[in-house]
């Protein structure tokens, strides 16, 4: 029997704990593939006493025999990738063309993208998006613009690259000077830097779509590793306070170059509460002692930027919306242990907007939504030692059951701590869990 592929995505505003879930499944897969986002992501994996924070390199890199792929849909920052590769090697992790492949069709994040991201955010003032300043939005904007885009394949040819970068930098300098009175970038320095990146990365660059389609045909199992979270999706999230790529499971075929049938089982990762970094609507936000409690217990500070995350109650309506969008087949519930110690735990089950009750998530009106909550009794027991659902206190089990009912899907994995073994695996049709 052919084992189905699996897609792991975030069902909230990112930082749901996807890294740990991908790590749990990676050894049962031949390929682990990033298909969206870029170095704005921060996937954390704890192995024993070692903590790895990965931004661009798929989490499968920590597993022997797994081929990791950066797909064409990724905004690829070669400087960040090379630093990450070096850091991994320094810690004894093997990284080479045998276990890391980078799509020749991925778009490259250039220094002017990062500069534009920061300048634009500063100019927006109170209306800023609150980006990670990694140049993600400007890179995807140039991808859509075509004439000002640089693809990974172009890093290989120094001459062509030089001509193109000179032309683009000259144009960007004029725009930045006019709009932001910015100092010009040195085109030659940019050319040199990126040609060097091209030389170093050359052995890993290939047509990854072809590679993955062949893998599908040969029955090799693939894990697609989502970045960010569904509510940050460029089309379906809380626009304009979103990221600039398709981060749901719908982004897999275009972002990896595989047919939709390759998506396989979709495992949606959700926190037992909600967090968000940056600006934008967040109906269940608790800007009060409950929010602070969640932030401190959950160590809710950004892996990529170090920013304090906004925290609040679980929004079951938002998660159900995200699960429906991606055709989620099973759920992974993370950070359940963080809720320990609260007298009551609340779940948002609907909204009120302009005096009218709303049962579904409508991104455009979430800024005006007042939450309708259901309250459950909290528990005092620490959960870090639980390895089976039966080990959970009755009130935590009730919370898990209620979440399953509200989202309409089974929870097949529960995380009760950052370490690999602090995990409860339940019945599942996904190989590697069940
Ligand atoms: P950008 O992706 O850097 O353009 O940022 C756009 C929005 O997405 C901001 O609110 C960021 O905080 C958020 N964001 C981007 N990547 C992540 C992530 O990996 N986790 C959580 N939030 C993210």
Element layout with pairings:
Layout: E1 6-10, H1 18-26, E2 31-34, E3 43-47, E4 50-54, E5 67-70, E6 75-76, H2 78-90, E7 100-103, E8 107-108, H3 111-124, H4 136-145, H5 158-180, H6 187-201, E9 205-206, H7 208-218, E10 222-225, H8 252-256, E11 265-271, E12 274-276, H9 289-297, E13 310-312, E14 314-315, H10 316-326, E15 330-334, E16 344-353, E17 356-358, E18 370-377, H11 394-407, E19 411-415, E20 423-425
Helix pairs in contact: 3-4, 3-5, 5-6
Inosinic acid binds at residues 13-15, 40-42, 129-132, 134, 136-137, 227-228, 232, 241, 243-244, 277-278.
Quaternary arrangement of the chains shown?
single chain
Strand order of the largest sheet: 9-7-5-2-10-1-11-15-19-20
Strand percentage: 15-25%
* Main structural class: alpha/beta
Which CATH-level-2 architecture of the largest domain? Alpha-Beta Complex
| Biggest sheet details | 10 strands, mixed
Count of domains: 2
Number of helices: 11
CATH topology tier name of the largest domain: Adenylosuccinate Synthetase, Chain A, domain 3
Average pLDDT for all residues? 96
Q: Which consecutive residue ranges, at least 5 long each, have pLDDT under 50? A: none
Output the radius of gyration: 22 Å
Number of strands: 20
Find the CATH superfamily of the largest domain.
Answer: Adenylosuccinate Synthetase, subunit A, domain 3
Share in helix: 25-40%
Straight-line distance between termini: 16 Å
- Bound ligand species: inosinic acid
Can you tell me the overall shape? Answer: globular
